[in-house]
Amino acid sequence: MPFRPAFSRCFSWDIRNTVGNIPMEWYKDYPHIGYDLDGKKIFKPIRNKDELDEFLDKMENPDYWRTIHDKMTGTDVCLSDEQVDLVHRLQQGKFGDVNFNEYEPAIDFFSNEVMIHPVTNRPADKRSFIPSLIEKEKVGKLVHAIKMGWIKPRRPKETAPQYYDLWAKEDPNAILGRHKMHIPAPKMRLPGHEESYNPPPEYLLTDEERQVWEQQDPDERKLSFLPQKYLSLRAVPAFSRFIQERFERCLDLYLCPRQRKMRVNVNPEDLIPKLPRPRDLQPFPTLQSLVYHGHSSLIRSISISPSGQWLVSGSDDCTVRFWEVCTTRCLKTMEVGGPVKSVAWNPAPSISLVAVSYGENVILVNPGLGDRLICSATDQLISSYEEPEEVKDQQVQWAVPEGKAQEQGQRLILTHPKAVKQVSWHGRGDYLACVMPDDGSSLQVVIHQVSRRRTQNPFHRNKGAVQCVSFHPSRPYFLVATQRYVRVYNLIKQELTKKLMANCKWISSMAVHPGGDNVICGSYDCRLAWFDLDLSTKPYKVLRHHKKALRGVAYHKHYPLFASGSDDGTVIVCHGMVYNDLLQNPLIVPVKVLKGHIITHDLGVLDVAFHPTQPWVFSSGADGTVRLFT
Amino acid sequence: MSQLQARFFTDNKKYVIDDVPFSIPAVSEITDLSNVINKLLEGKNGDHKHVEFDFLVQGQFLRSSLATHLETENISTVMECSYDKTARIWSLEGKAVATVAGHTDVVKGVAWVKRDGLSSLLLTASLDQTVLLWEWSSERNKLRARHCCRGHAGSVDTISVDPTRSKFCSGSWDKMLKIWSAVPTEEEEEEEEESNRPRKKQKTEQLGPTRTPLMTLSGHTEAVSSVLWMDTEELCSASWDHTIRLWDAETGSQKNMLTGSKVFNCISYSPLCHRLATGSTDRHVRLWDPRSKDGSLVLLSLTSHTGWVTAVRWSPSHEQQLISGSLDNLVKLWDTRSCKAPLYDLAAHEDKVLCADWTDCGLILSGGADNKLYTYRYSACLSDAGA
């Protein structure tokens, strides 16, 4: 609707004053109040009405209530009756005109009777039957707007009802949470006989006990009060410690936070590590097959030839015997000058020598068993030695035996300053280490070189009584076991590489894994400690399978087995699988307890050794027999 | 009281006595014979102590008097080898015939090459890495070492002669099998010993010319414990590396390998039923089919021994019988049709049984670590006696 200025509406307005619809204040200062139609000024009345006049007017004029001061013309107008009526009607919201009747009867524009002829006979347009084109246009515009992104279509509302968890954000520490998980306070101790006003006499403290009670600290006392006896309940005074006891109880209640102990339901079977069954770890020796009889006293040491055909044993009856493994036939017996402490067969397959230690001597014997060529080559090797020009003074004398000893097979005699307890060959077969245990001296271990007939003492200082030594199978390390520790020395750098701490009081025997990374130690306090040299200096595992002291331990060269023999007469064979990838720890499973030896003079099995190729174990005992378990 | 003539042989130098026939009462027993020997020895050396001797006669140990031993079943002879570095030839009639002493070390195996009425060839294998080929003429009772076969680098544990009797194969601790010719050659004959009877101390210089092997078969990774010929071109060997290998003797190549789980001690083949029987270091006797191509196929496992099985042999006449000897002092006779238990347990030895065999005439022999050689007679019953 076009805009019309306001003043053009009011044609019926006052034409006596032609100034229009303006605020009359503009004529406040002028004597006239406007202009009439002729253009002449309309003057205000001469005398203005002041307050007194107004007041008098109000009081006395009967028409005061219908007199209005007209601002346009400046005169007072008195409304007539019809005008007053009109005003009243307008105020009530009726129509102004009296004669107007708003409730005229409705006249039907069109009759409600159904006629036979239509209003118009115009034929229907096509647009009555087809979808509306206007709407299509509008829809197209909407689609375009949606595609352009000006209008975003509304996503349909999810019809699924929406819930929320009332208790989702519950905090157990919150007050409400604490109320729910109420842990009741521990109850106070009910009063016993001591608290009675008339306790039995044995509950009363004697003088000495009272003195002791008084001397003790209040924290130490068992009872915080002295039991007292009164004749009757009337005589019982007020309890002096009442407030203190209640205070202590309050301290207990709120200073000691109470917490529910969460019991973990652990299946005890889960704690046991899942070890494979022994059946899966075959082959390992299971029963005694052969017994080698012949010695008359306890056999301290055995050793197997590298081919696995012969066995040598040394015993306290001063003999060394050579046996054929598969038939238990003793092929040779050699008498030596003292109880034999240790025998060791040279592990090099091209040399046929056995080192035997008795007393202070170590003899190298060519047993003459096996391949003739090798035996003769060994003899030639020994005899082809040339003495160097300058003979250094050595602590150990090398001598070549003659006569009967030579015929028996002895090729070299080494005389040591002290009794030799153990001999051990290097893997190549040229170096031989001997142990002379003596806690004080620094000459406990000597290393001999057979081809040059030279002896060396590798250590300056004494570190403890040496129990046994061993060469490392592949690296230039030398392992020395004293009573509590095993020290690994690097022979090339001539320094101490590692010190392994076994938790044992007295180490008795030691063996190195053929792979070179693991060492086992047997000790006299029934423990077998397995060390992983890469892992740490403490034992990886300590096995306590035996009941008595361990005397000998051994590894198998090819199979993942190790065995330990002890004074309880048994040999325990364990599976010890070492993995090539450095991630897995060795798997140790005890597999078989082999019994057979008879305990003689409280000694059982003294030495164990594995066959080099077959999963068989030999054990020598104090009963004078060597037993083969297969 | 009848008297018998007897000669005493031994290789043990300490107890050598004169090699003259003695006249012994027929009812003498071991103790009596022992006393005789002891007296003779006391006569020789003043400080001889009385020693109990054991006597081997006719392949049997004297358990009762001499007279009962002279039952004659005189067809074949028996040879046994022993740890006193000799092998002996016994006849089942008469007396101990010959002692084959020539090795410098323990004799581990013997085999006949050929035996006919006049002269026989035999082989002995020993720990001194040699195999000696002997010729024995039974009429003159003379033994002569024809050849010394050297070549092994370890003790020779087992020998076996091929069916044509022209070759033999030896297996040893050096993991090799060597095939040699068994025909004695006449060139370079040494002067032979002119003696009509075997001597106690056979001169060991006369060992004959050295012979080298025709072929060496290598493949085993451990010692060879037993070898045998299956037919003229096929060899079978069992070893400590838990395998049985079949070789072609012509080309020297390995044809087949059967794998077991334990060390094999002994093996035997029966051409009648084409089965191999093995004894191992566990107490089972296993039967194998050598024709099987896939790995190991144990057809049957006979379990009754309680120690290592050191000897198995098929019966040459019966295709289902075999004997086995073991370290539990027993020799057992099995029938493969009843695999749960042996037919017989022959408990005669007091120590480990180290070898067992059949003779041509149906006797079973076994020798053991108690220095004894036992013969047993087994007569097959036609009726089913018992189960």
Describe this structure in words.
Chain B: WD repeats lie at residues 100-144, 149-181, 217-257, 257-289, 302-338. The complex is a heterodimer of chains A (630) and B (387). Chain A has 630 residues and is an alpha+beta fold. Helix content of chain A is 14%, strand content 27%. Chain A is built from 9 helices and 33 strands. The model of chain A has no long low-confidence stretch (mean pLDDT 87). By secondary structure, chain B is mainly beta. Chain B contains 1 helix and 31 strands. The longest helix of chain B is centred in the first third of the chain and has 15 residues, at 30-44. The interface between A and B is medium-sized, with 19 and 26 residues.
In short:
Chain A is an alpha+beta fold and 630 residues long. Chain A is built from 9 helices and 33 strands.
Give the tags:
A: 630 residues, alpha+beta, 5-stranded antiparallel sheet, 4-stranded antiparallel sheet, 33 strands, B: 387 residues, mainly beta, 5-stranded mixed sheet, disordered C terminus
What's the helix count of chain A?
9
Number of beta-strand segments of chain A: 33
**Gross geometry of chain B:** globular
Largest sheet of chain B: 5 strands, mixed
This entry's quaternary arrangement is heterodimer
List the helices and strands and how they pair.
The complex is a heterodimer of chains A (630) and B (387).
Chain A: E1 32-35, E2 41-43, H1 51-60, E3 67-69, E4 76-78, H2 81-92, H3 133-148, H4 175-180, H5 207-215, H6 242-255, H7 268-271, E5 288-292, E6 299-304, E7 310-315, E8 319-324, E9 330-335, E10 340-345, E11 354-358, E12 361-365, H8 372-383, E13 397-399, H9 404-408, E14 410-415, E15 422-425, E16 431-435, E17 445-449, E18 454-456, E19 468-471, E20 477-481, E21 485-490, E22 495-501, E23 507-512, E24 518-523, E25 528-532, E26 541-543, E27 550-555, E28 561-566, E29 570-577, E30 587-595, E31 605-610, E32 617-621, E33 626-629
Antiparallel strand pairs in A: 1-2, 3-4, 5-33, 6-7, 7-8, 8-9, 10-11, 11-12, 12-14, 13-14, 15-16, 16-17, 17-18, 19-20, 20-21, 21-22, 23-24, 24-25, 25-26, 27-28, 28-29, 29-30, 31-32, 32-33
Chain B: E1 3-6, E2 22-25, H1 30-44, E3 56-57, E4 60-61, E5 77-81, E6 86-91, E7 96-101, E8 107-115, E9 119-126, E10 130-137, E11 142-150, E12 156-161, E13 167-172, E14 176-181, E15 210-211, E16 215-218, E17 224-231, E18 234-239, E19 243-248, E20 254-259, E21 264-270, E22 275-280, E23 284-288, E24 298-303, E25 309-314, E26 321-326, E27 331-335, E28 344-346, E29 353-358, E30 363-368, E31 373-377
